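Hi L.,

As promised, Glutamate--tRNA ligase:
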Amino acid sequence: MASNRAATDQKVVTRFAPSPTGFLHIGGARTALFNWLFSRHHGGKALLRIEDTDRKRSTQEAIDAILDGLDWLGLDYDEDPTFQSRQANRHAEVAQILLDNGHAYRCYATPEELEAMRAEQRANKQPMRYDGRWRDRDPSEASEGASFAVRLKTPTDGETAIEDLVQGPVTVRNEEIDDYIILRADGTPTYMLAAVVDDHDMGCTHIIRGDDHLNNAFRQLPIYRAMDAIEGGWSDPTYAHIPLIHGSDGTKLSKRHGALGVEAYRDDMGILPEALFNYLLRLGWGHGDREEITRDEAIELFSLDGVGKSPSRFDIKKLENLNGHYIREADDARLAKMVAGKLGDDADIALLEQAMPVMKTRAKNIDELVDGAGFLFAKIPLTMTDKAAKLLTDDGKALLSAISNRLKAENSWTIEALEATTKALAEELELGFGKLAQPMRAALTGTTTSPGIFDVLVLLGRDEALARIDAQAVSPSQD
């Protein structure tokens, strides 16, 4: 019997095999990441296979979204993607080899016969599985020209054991695995056959995937072992089945928890790729108390020993907090370009880059930077939020007039000089500094939240800042 291969026995080859029937789900992205890190850690190969055999549901749009999402996360592959649909002849060839060597057989059971079989099993509360009715029958018993499917002849006694690198030892009695179809009546291969043939032909040594595929391993291993007995060289892969991701409340992950495509985290939620990379890495894998881990460190540290056996919980707030960390660490020019892309053609990238050090200190996503940068490009008269408008009372406007007169006399338009001048005015008026800063912020930004008021004055520049203050300090009746 073939045995599992350890990571050190030969060059590691992993594969990520998404189905292009929708976006790159966050769970799939983590599976891709773990495969990529495992191969990179061992100096092996990371491969990508697009499992597009469902021609009705697979779309080019979904393929593009998957490739784009993987590229955005920085997951590169060592060969061009393999498309499963293009290997159908090879899959059929292996089915024929199994058939010719007695490891598979033709099943002529009609859909009506199979449904009657299942109905009887339901009535008797028996396990729902194929009863092997054509396993030992001569094909000559079938009607001439009758259609047939090809079923794998699975072991009927004993048990199959897997030493899973995440789940540990797992054993299943062979009698629990029925003779399943590997080639449909129309000649198309089933997933079970196609996945095994592709994994073998791609040289995959390690199959790292969600634990919802654990049962599939016990159905797929008989194909490896039958082909190994026929041809040799079909050694069992090493399996690692990763627990699925749950929502923060412990239930199955759904859209209400944030179960979106990777592109939604990028485009709609303003998450940086390094933040999602780090978050997915820590979602079910750990290395001590480390939270922030760079890409290079992840490659160095990653091992399947650190993957837990329990489902991990997805927490949007934790992702946003981590994203805030990476925004603060990010290059200002890069952030400015991203913000400008969302603001449109009128955005001044140079001004955004100048503003970024003070804008990014509290932002948790790119959209917050976009919102925070809006005041830089606002036109007089500014649109006021309700809270800002309430600060521009007659008393507030009077204070703005005093502020304007004092700032117009200021020769040095720097943070230090403006702060000294404004605070001196507050002392003269016997007011707390906040009493001046609040109407100033409203007049300058149209909001009650912004970077520091002196940063705002400097970023807007002398002429624009004074024009905005004067626009609120003098009412239309005073023009």
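The chain has 19 helices and twelve strands.

Thanks again for sending the construct details.

K.
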